[in-house]
Amino acid sequence: MTKDDPGQDSASGGDDRLASLDERLQAARDAETVRTAPQHGKPEKGYSQGNRVLSELIAGPAGGALLGWLFDRWLGTSPGLLLVMMTLGIVIAFRNIIRISNERPE
């Protein structure tokens, strides 16, 4: 075949295009593997802050209610101290949540 033969040009051009396509596909596979690889490390700060907020929301009112109930049983003032201590637990929980939300990210 001669240089002017279109069959020869398309065969070598096709090989170059296939090689280029293979390289691009391999690069895309590598990028996807890196993107979807599991992260083994410290969880993000937002995740730990969310857990802290959740624990404050549960522990504050529950701890206040428990202490109030115990003091009510001991002093015979049912349900006064239960309500006061539970309200105090809610207030303290919200104060701590505001402090957590004002922390600066590292």
Automatic annotation (TrEMBL):
Similarity comment: Belongs to the bacterial AtpI family.
Protein name: ATP synthase protein I
Record-annotated membrane-spanning stretches: 77-98
Annotated spans, Disordered: 1-49
Gene Ontology biological process terms from the UniProt entry: proton transmembrane transport
Function: A possible function for this protein is to guide the assembly of the membrane sector of the ATPase enzyme complex.
Bias-annotated ranges (Basic and acidic residues): 14-33
A Gene Ontology term for the protein's cellular component: proton-transporting ATP synthase complex
Keywords carried by this UniProt record: Hydrogen ion transport, Ion transport, Membrane, Transmembrane, Transmembrane helix, Transport
Name of a matching Pfam family: ATPase_gene1
